[in-house]
Fold this sequence. Notes:
The structure is a single chain. The protein folds into 2 domains: 23-130, no CATH class; 144-387, CATH 3.40.630.20. It is globular and about 60 Å long. It has a 7-stranded mixed sheet, with helices on both faces. The protein is 37% helix and 17% strand. It is of the alpha/beta class.
Amino acid sequence: MILRISLYSLCYLIFLASFTVNAAVKLTxxxxxxxxxxxxxPVISDYFDxxxxxxxxxxxxxxxxxxxxxxxxxxxxxxxxxxxTQQSKLVDDRPLYWTRLALKGFIxxxxxxxxxxxxxALLEVFETxxxxxxxxxxxxxxxxRILLTGFDPFLLDRNIKQSNPxxxxxxxxxxxxxxxxxxGKTITAEINTxxxxxxxxxxxxxxxxxxxxxxxxxNSVDMITTVSMGRSDFDLEHFPGLRRSSxxxxxxxxxxxxxxxxxxxxxxxxxxxxxxEFVLFSLPYQAMMKAKxxxxxxxxxxxxxxxxxxxxxxxxxxxxxxxxxxxxQGGGGGYLSNEISYRSIVxxxxxxxTIPTGHxxxxxxxxxxxxxxQAIVEQIKAMLVLSLTEI
Length: 391
């Protein structure tokens, strides 16, 4: 007997399948690293008490109730992580990252009553709340407001114990009020922060644009600074570039296929990201470069361009020098550090915002070093204090 099925019937069956209960949920490459991370860093296993959540979660059957519970859980994890660092109980960015992934794995395996689409939506709620995306409200009476983003640890298959100073910066500075005093006058600013994933798909789906658009549209903050881990010193990245060219994978082990001879344009939803090959940052870099600390602070104007289909490193003094060039690397490289800066500046310009915007690359660390991380954060704080004179 030959089974015949119409195209309509096939589409209908596919539609129904998307709403079926999950029999088995596949863990991502990030989530599959959790066991190894817990063995390498036992402290992360007891970092956050989720016993009450884990015992009650399988009994939650309604989507609205589940969403409410994961909103609460995500915020609890974010607030807990900030307190741990700011009260010097555990000054480390890694436990937040690994705890988030462990809980996502648990939620996937213990959520048999929700469809795949419902589960995806629930995990996104938990993800965004645990990254501080919904905690970006300014509560204090200050003269200025600063928004700063950090990144998760990355390249974890090379070193499972890798830390990221930019993530620790976000945890330590969130909610902090800084001040600059000059000639008897005091300028104050409240800092709010969020933690960004190292995943190409999240960027392609417009996560950075969705996060920052409300601030640019309303000009509701006085500076937006994206931060990531970079080279040997601090680099203030003068000319972010459009294209990806790094051969490194993201945290999901996704490779873009890009390289220096074939730089690729990222996406914004279904379309290629639109913008000039290079854009100009607008941080008050001359003031920020005066910040004291153990590391040199560079005004980095180096980029890589294609000339006769060959990549060439150049130092640009102005945007006019880059007007006819194809970007291989911006100042921040060809990875997501450069891209978050490029996307934020393009968005700022499209929305007609006047908010000073740009990227700080921190010195690179190997593994984790509490003293080095603290020194990096303190020098970033000093940069932000000095920026108050110009924003």
